[in-house]
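testing teh design pipeline on a random one, pls ignore if ur not involved
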C-alpha cells in the first residue's frame, strides 16, 4: 500500500500511559460534570474551578510518558514514504513527546489562549482567573483547549487530508464526539480503506472495514510493523 495515511487518536491511546479516558468506567466524565469544566458557560460561571481541573490534568500529563503505541505512530511517520497525518483529540502532548508531528483538533494543555484578543502562548503549569494576557493585558486567559459548543481546530485542513487519504485509522476513540466521529464517513466517501483499533466495540465500529481489538500498546506496534516492516 502507498499514499497518505490519516490517523485519528483519542484518549484510549494514552490510557496505558496512566491518563484516564473520558467515558470508560471511572473515566473523567464519570467524576466531573462536563458542563461545568468543559464548556464556555462553565468557565464563565466558575473560572477557578475550570482552571483547577486543567491545572491538574496539565500536571498529570507533564509526568506521563508516551507508550509503545505513541512510539509506533512516530516511527510510522518517519518510515512511511507518503505523508502520515496524525490528528489527535488528546490534549496531553504525548504524541509530540514520542517525536511525532500532530494536528491538535481539541487544542493542547501546553497552550494558553486569550479569550479577549485571541493571542496564544505557552501555558504556565498553573493558570488562574486573575492571570493577564501578555499581549493585551486583560484578565481573559484560558487553557487553549476546545470545549463543547466550540469549533475544533484545523477542520478545513483535516477534511482536505481525509479527501486525499488511502487509509484512515481511528485508535482509542469512542466515536461519540463529532466532528471527529464523522471522519470515518468522510474517508469512506473518498474511497479510503478504514481500520479501527480499540479495546472494545464503539458507536462507529460498524462503519469500519477492518478492526483490530486489544490494548493500543500491543496492537498499534503490530499494525505499524505490518505497514512498514
Ligand atoms: P473516550 O473516553 O470517549 O473513549 C476512549 C476509547 O478508548 C474507548 O472507546 C475505549 O474502549 C478505548 N480504550 C480505552 N483503553 C484503551 C486501550 N488501552 N487501548 C485501546 N483503546 C482503549 O475518549 P475519546 O474518544 O478520546 O473532548 O473522547 C473524545 C472527546 O470527548 C475528547 O477529546 C474530549 C471528550 O469529551 C473534549 O473535551 C472537547
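output:
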Amino acid at each position: 500500500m502507498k499514499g497518505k495515511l490519516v490517523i485519528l487518536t483519542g484518549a484510549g491511546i494514552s490510557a496505558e500511559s496512566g491518563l484516564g479516558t473520558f467515558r470508560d468506567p471511572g473515566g473523567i466524565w464519570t467524576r466531573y460534570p462536563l458542563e461545568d469544566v468543559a464548556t464556555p458557560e462553565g468557565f464563565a460561571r466558575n473560572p477557578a474551578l475550570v482552571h483547577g481541573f486543567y491545572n491538574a490534568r496539565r500536571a498529570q500529563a507533564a509526568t506521563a510518558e508516551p507508550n509503545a503505541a505513541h512510539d509506533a505512530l512516530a516511527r510510522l511517520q518517519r518510515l512511511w514514504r507518503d505523508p502520515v497525518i496524525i490528528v489527535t483529540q488528546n490534549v496531553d502532548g504525548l504524541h509530540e513527546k514520542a517525536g511525532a508531528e500532530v494536528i491538535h483538533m481539541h487544542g493542547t494543555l501546553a497552550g494558553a489562549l486569550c479569550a479577549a484578543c485571541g493571542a496564544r502562548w505557552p501555558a504556565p503549569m498553573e493558570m488562574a482567573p486573575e492571570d493577564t494576557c501578555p499581549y493585551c493585558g486583560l484578565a481573559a486567559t484560558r487553557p487553549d483547549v476546545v470545549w463543547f459548543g466550540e469549533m475544533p481546530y484545523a477542520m478545513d485542513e483535516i477534511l482536505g487530508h481525509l479527501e486525499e487519504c488511502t487509509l484512515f485509522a481511528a485508535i482509542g476513540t469512542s466515536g461519540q464526539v463529532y466532528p471527529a466521529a464523522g471522519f470515518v464517513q468522510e474517508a469512506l466517501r473518498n474511497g479510503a480503506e478504514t481500520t479501527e483499533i480499540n479495546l472494545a466495540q464503539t458507536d462507529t465500529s460498524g462503519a469500519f472495514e477492518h478492526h483490530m481489538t486489544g490494548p493500543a500498546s500491543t496492537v498499534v506496534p503490530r499494525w505499524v510493523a505490518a505497514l512498514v516492516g
